[in-house]
Amino acid sequence: MDVLAGRILVTPVDPARSVAFYRDVLGLGVYREFPGGTVFFLGGGYLEVSGQAVEPTSPDYRVRLWVQVRDLGAAHRELVARGATVVREPRREPWGLDEMWVVDPDGLYIAVVAVPPEHPLRRDPRG
Question: Where in the chain are the domains?
Fold first, then answer.
């Protein structure tokens, strides 16, 4: 299988509210729009908000978004100013990443992560 691209699909209860959240609160850029959906740039991939869920469901912790930022403190201040719901304040995790967690309007958990300079993710594993 030759995978050419990938994206995460989100089916919200209130599509307009969720598009506004990802565009205006998280500040994601719009890649394309189509009737019934909006696709956002998400680092090296895409996030598609399309369709409409019939009713809200409890958050499914098996599916979460992970977005990396350069400066977690600045991202925290910006997201709070834009009205994001922060469910866990920024902190250094035992695995060495700086993380905070926010939720989208339907309760989807989003990890906002900064990789410290000394973390192994900053090194080229190829040697």
Answer: 7-122
CATH number for the region 7-122 comes to 3.10.180.10
Q: What is the pLDDT of residues 91-114, one digit of tens each?
A: 999 888 899 999 999 999 999 999
pTM of the model: 0.81
Place of tokens 């991202």: 75
Cα dihedral: 86, 94, 71, 68 (round 10) = -80
Instruction: Beginning with the edge strand found earlier in the chain, give each strand of the sheet holding 30-34 in spatial order.
Output: 7-10, 45-50, 37-42, 30-34
HEC-encoded secondary structure of the chain: CCCCCCEEEECCCCHHHHHHHHHHHCCCCEEEEECCEEEEEECCEEEEEECCCCCCCCCCCCCCEEEECCCHHHHHHHHHHCCCEEEEEEEECCCCCEEEEEECCCCCEEEEEECCCCCHHHCCCCC
